[in-house]
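Aim 2 progress update. The chain analyzed this quarter is reproduced below.
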Amino acid sequence: MPIHLRRGEEIQVREHQFLAATGNVDYTFERVRGLATMLFGQSGFFIDRFRGDTGDGIVWLHGYGNVFEKTLTPGETIDIEPGGWLFKDTSVKMETKIDRLSSGFFGANMNFIVNRFTGPGRVGIQSMYLHMPTEE
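Predicted structure tokens:
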């Protein structure tokens, strides 16, 4: 999936989704810790950051299954399974939500975990996902 970046525009991408970029796109990354540690292993996970630094550019990403782009209006939210998001604009806020579900006679409990994205901005969603194996 090609993502066109204007000069100064930046996107944040799930780790292991990057394919290629034009030469005028700057790259960096950040480690996400905290609650993500519970979801993705002890060390947390990484988010890749791409920015149209010296001019317009293109970043190509790999999404599993079908890839959709949702543009959120200011304050609009969407909940996405943690492995389902592909990229987001930096203007989109992401937070992990855990809801405790209980049902049945014996009160079986389980957690329902989603990432909540709040606009404004774009969010890329993939219909399938692959969690990379860890050493644990």
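The chain has a mean pLDDT of 85. The longest helix spans residues 35-40. These observations will guide the mutagenesis experiments scheduled for the next reporting period.
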